[in-house]
């Protein structure tokens, strides 16, 4: 009973905090309203006994929003993050798209014939999830992980303003590297 | 591993547990006051330092700044204490725990990243340049310390084949994890200092930026923030006990007493280190974190994983 009440209360919190993202006029408030929304969802997942996924959701989302705070002030021109600004853009289209998506998903929820539970949940859900992700699909996970890492590195390399020739000189022999920002290891 | 390593106590015990954390935090503050008094030679004893500061802040008027984001400011300032309280819910005091979560290690991790939010929000909320600079210094530290800290938490979990804090403590019957996971232990301690914005990680509160994050904090807000830092040091020390220091293992005394003794000892080291270590400049420490700490702790994880695989 308490679990049900908590679940629905958290659902309301998640939706309201999600709506607040577009209502507040500050980047910081929008970021952390989104974080609150995700935390509410994470706690809902906890209530569904998926402890690992729930706690990891909270962990990742708080960190993600903190990193977003770094980037929004660092990379936004004229620093709108520090002054009030509207959090909505292109209202008419956005409204149409969001209502459409909501109707689609809600119709899906109501119309899909949900299967009844077969069998019982495993004793250790975390272990079962790990088996499911890492058991026969380990090769896929390893492949996807490598591709993702390569994508990130390639993206950074392509976006970087300075190349290794700027750092190490034309013959790549300059030591230590000529970096605008000195590091702590003394290279 | 079949029977539960710890007993879950009634939720009402959360209040004494919070009180215990408060006592530990006060003990940390008193030790810090004593060390300050000895260094500066002012005041007869260290006791006047923390208690005098509490009395002063309790009656200080709350400072307001122009266009402050008060809501986020208050959330940030009071958040550190909340984090510390949430951390100790999964720390078993001998046989008893408040919350026997099967993924307690991840729980600690989720709570420690909240520092990213709370410290930055405290810096942001005041709408003051100095405090915002402090907030960004903390996030820059965070980008360097967080991944090594996460991988440091992996080592005891792999060593015990469990994410449950009680089972990790129980797995150290023969040999404490600190003995064969020293790198992970040191990196974990570094992480605790970092989330408490303590010692090497205090440039976010640096005097060169007028106190940084705390520049505009006054009265109760400052008390909550500073108290939260001591509480986080205490909670981090308490969490290290089941993770690395054998939990309640020890001769003669009962398990709960050993947990408290080990916590107090580690807390004392944390407080003492404040004056012994240089400040870690966020920009310089970034490279140290990624090029030294991260590979070192990954190597530690590899060794632990090989040993764990060999045992099973």
From TrEMBL, chain A:
Task: Give any Gene Ontology cellular component.
Answer: plasma membrane
Which molecular function terms from Gene Ontology are attached? NADH dehydrogenase (ubiquinone) activity; quinone binding
Q: Where are the transmembrane segments?
A: 6-24, 31-47, 53-73, 94-114, 138-160
KW NAD (keyword) present? yes
- Membrane topology (UniProt): Multi-pass membrane protein
Please give the catalytic activity noted in the UniProt record.
a quinone + NADH + 5 H(+)(in) = a quinol + NAD(+) + 4 H(+)(out)
Q: Where is this protein localized, as stated in its record?
A: Cell membrane
Under Enzyme Commission nomenclature, its number is 7.1.1.-
Which keywords describe this protein according to UniProt? Cell membrane, Membrane, NAD, Quinone, Transmembrane, Transmembrane helix, Ubiquinone
Please give the family membership noted in the entry: Belongs to the complex I subunit 6 family.
- Primary role: NDH-1 shuttles electrons from NADH, via FMN and iron-sulfur (Fe-S) centers, to quinones in the respiratory chain. Couples the redox reaction to proton translocation (for every two electrons transferred, four hydrogen ions are translocated across the cytoplasmic membrane), and thus conserves the redox energy in a proton gradient.
Q: What is this protein called?
A: NADH-quinone oxidoreductase subunit J
From TrEMBL, chain B:
Looking up InterPro entries in the UniProt record yields:
NADH_UbQ_OxRdtase_su1/FPO
Task: Tell me the superkingdom of the source.
Answer: Bacteria
One cellular component (GO) term of this entry: plasma membrane
Q: What GO terms describe the biological role, i.e. biological process, of this protein?
A: aerobic respiration
Pfam families in the record: NADHdh
An example of a GO molecular function for this protein is: NADH dehydrogenase activity
Mind telling me which residue stretches traverse the membrane in this protein? 12-35, 71-93, 105-126, 138-163, 175-198, 230-249, 255-273, 285-309
> What PANTHER family does the record point to?
NADH DEHYDROGENASE SUBUNIT 1, NADH-UBIQUINONE OXIDOREDUCTASE CHAIN 1
Q: What is this protein called?
A: NADH dehydrogenase subunit H
């Amino acid at each position: 009973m308490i679990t049900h009440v908590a679940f629905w209360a958290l659902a309301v919190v998640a939706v309201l905090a999600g709506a607040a993202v577009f209502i507040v006029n500050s980047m910081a408030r929008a970021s952390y309203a989104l974080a609150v929304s995700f935390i509410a969802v994470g706690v809902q997942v906890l209530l569904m006994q998926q402890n690992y996924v729930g706690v990891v959701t909270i962990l990742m989302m708080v960190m993600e929003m903190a990193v977003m705070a770094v980037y929004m002030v660092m990379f936004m021109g004229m620093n709108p993050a520090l002054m009030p600004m509207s959090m909505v853009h292109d209202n008419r289209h956005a409204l149409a798209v969001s209502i459409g998506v909501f109707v689609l998903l809600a119709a899906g929820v109501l119309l899909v014939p949900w299967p009844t539970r077969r069998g019982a949940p495993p004793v250790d859900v975390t272990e079962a999830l790990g088996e499911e992700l890492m058991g026969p699909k380990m090769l896929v996970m390893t492949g996807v992980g490598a591709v993702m890492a390569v994508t990130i590195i390639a993206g950074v390399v392509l976006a970087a303003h300075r190349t290794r020739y700027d750092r190490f000189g034309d013959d790549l022999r300059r030591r230590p590297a000529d970096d605008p920002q000195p590091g702590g290891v003394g290279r | 591993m079949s029977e539960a390593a710890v007993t879950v106590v009634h939720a009402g015990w959360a209040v004494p547990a919070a009180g215990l954390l408060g006592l530990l935090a006060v003990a940390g503050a008193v030790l810090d006051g004593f060390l300050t008094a000895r260094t500066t030679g002012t005041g007869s004893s260290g006791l006047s330092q923390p208690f005098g500061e509490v009395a002063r802040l309790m009656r200080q008027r709350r400072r307001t700044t122009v266009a402050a984001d008060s809501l986020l400011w208050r959330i940030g300032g009071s958040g550190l204490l909340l984090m510390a309280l949430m951390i100790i819910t999964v720390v078993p005091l001998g046989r008893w725990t408040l919350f026997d979560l099967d993924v307690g290690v991840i729980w600690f991790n989720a709570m420690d990243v909240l520092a990213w939010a709370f410290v930055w929000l405290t810096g942001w909320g005041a709408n003051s340049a100095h405090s915002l600079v402090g907030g960004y210094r903390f996030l820059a530290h965070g980008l360097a310390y967080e991944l090594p800290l996460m991988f440091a938490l992996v080592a005891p979990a792999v060593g015990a084949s469990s994410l449950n804090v009680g089972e990790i403590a129980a797995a150290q019957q023969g040999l404490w994890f600190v003995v064969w996971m020293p790198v992970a232990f040191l990196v974990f301690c570094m992480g605790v200092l970092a989330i408490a914005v303590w010692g090497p990680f205090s440039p976010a509160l640096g005097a060169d930026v007028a106190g940084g994050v705390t520049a505009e904090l006054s009265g109760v807000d400052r008390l909550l923030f500073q108290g939260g830092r001591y509480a986080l040091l205490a909670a981090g020390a308490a969490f290290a006990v089941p993770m690395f220091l054998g939990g309640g293992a020890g001769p003669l005394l009962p398990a709960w007493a050993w947990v408290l003794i080990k916590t107090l000892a580690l807390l004392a080291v944390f407080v003492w280190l404040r004056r012994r270590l240089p400040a870690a400049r966020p920009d310089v420490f970034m490279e140290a974190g990624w090029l030294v700490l991260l590979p070192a702790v990954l190597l530690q994880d590899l060794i632990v994983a090989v040993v764990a695989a060999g045992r099973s």
